[in-house]
Amino acid sequence: MILFVERRKGQRHKGTRAQRGWRISLCLWPSVPLCLCLLLLCSYVCTASVVINEIHYDPDVKTEAVEFVELYNTAATGIDLSGWYFSNGISYEFPVGSTLPAGGYIIVAYSPLHIDSKWGDNRSGIPPHWVFGPFQGKLANEGETIELRNPDGDLIDRVDYQLGFPWPTVGDPVPAQQPGAGNSIQLINPFLDNDLAGSWRSAEPTPAAHNERVYVDNPPPHVRQVEHSPKQPRSGETAIITAKVTDSDGVARVTLGYQIVEPGSYISITDSQYHLNWTNIAMGDDGLDGDAIAGDDVYSVQLPGSMQVHRRLIRYRITAEDRSGRGLLVPYVDDPQPNFAY
Fold first, then answer.
1. Distance between CA 54 and CA 206 in Å, rounded?
2. Are residues 112 and 198 in the same domain?
3. Residue 37 domain flag
4. What is the dihedral of CA 205, 209, 213, 217, to 10 degrees?
5. 281 φ, ψ to 5°?
6. Which of 299, 323, 303 is nearest to 312 (CA)?
7. Which of 80, 218, 231, 268 has a C-alpha 20 to 30 A away from that of 102?
8. Which of 174, 203, 232 represents a domain boundary (last residue)?
9. Are 162 and 113 within 8 A, CB to CB?
10. Are 317 and 152 in contact (CB under 8 A)?
11. Average pLDDT in the 104-132 region?
12. Tens of pLDDT along 206-244?
């Protein structure tokens, strides 16, 4: 018997890492014992269970060296991390004897001393053996690809985070008058594809702990690739707004909300009027009314040319709901820019 294991980390809808990550094939071959194949299979499944679960890449107080990457073990058995290393984004190799317990969390920090100073005296505390580092390099605020590999160089996990929607926004204190209270980006469920931006939200950092503020059992739809065309519609020109929306429970409805801001009557996002006079219209994936291809998960809507007037501002946002009733508004509610516009 021969065991073939292939990793396939690609686009998918919503589900487990197992659904999108690994293909395992068993072929009968007399010279390879079954017990060896099962041992190899267990090894591959265990290493596939380690996920990059939280990234604190842009602390709001720039003199606080508290950047970290958190790993979580979704398996029921511990993982020996000896010789594992980050090959991209940051540079760090786990020393011999490093372990990640079953269902456990660890962080790799830019400065373990700063981590201890900021979070080590909390009531829960962070045990020192859960904090590794220091890592070399810096997590880029404008986006970075982080790669984790085992001693053989096999890719275990990769996250390619970016600046701005559909990724969560971090880097400012929350609330604004509380320096040092900046958010990290966190997986809303460790079994989701963590290379999809919609699997992440921003929240107060939870180093080496459960992402309790963002965790959901069944996430809402993923919304990304939000665009309007043309980029700058001329007076009288029809505008088409599109968004890719996916959900394994099925997408029930996608709705565009738009607000017209007339020249000379600008409404700030901090004004009470900002929340008024939004008009909702349905977006479709039926190949009609500006939708290019039916059933391709790209939802579209046309805004008529009569809406396009010189110097008029059109703001818009999108709400998606799945068939289980779970909904999502984008941009996200904590985004400092709460709408798209042209």
1. 8
2. yes
3. no
4. 140
5. -140, 150
6. 303
7. 218
8. 203
9. no
10. no
11. 88
12. 999 999 999 999 999 999 999 999 999 999 999 999 999
Within a domain: 128? yes
- Assess whether 175 and 247 both reside in one domain: no
Confidence of residue 120 (pLDDT cuts 50, 70, 90): confident
CATH number at residue 146: 2.60.40.1260
Name the residue range of residue 285's domain: 222-341
Asked if 192 and 68 sit in the same domain, the reply is: yes
> Based on the number of CB atoms within 10 Å of its own CB, is 245 exposed (0-12), middle (13-18) or buried (19 or more)?
buried
Single-letter amino acid code for the residue at 181: A
d(CA 184, CA 39): 37
Name which of 126, 79, 135, 71 is nearest 102 in CA terms: 79
Question: Left (φ > 0), alpha (ψ -120 to 50) or beta: where does 65 sit?
Answer: beta
Report the DSSP pairing between strands 131-132 and 105-109: parallel
* Together in a domain, 265 and 148: no
Q: Which of 224, 226, 221 is nearest to 250 (CA)?
A: 221
The answer to whether residue 59 scores a pLDDT higher than 90 is yes
Give me the number of domains the chain comprises: 2
Nearest to 22 by CA among 2, 49, 60: 49
Across 172-200, average pLDDT: 88
Question: Does residue 221 contact residue 15 with C-beta atoms inside 8 Å?
Answer: no
Task: Kindly report the number of other CB atoms within 10 A of residue 13's CB atom.
Answer: 18
Both 70 and 159 in one domain: the answer is: yes
The pLDDT, as a whole number, for residue 251 is: 98
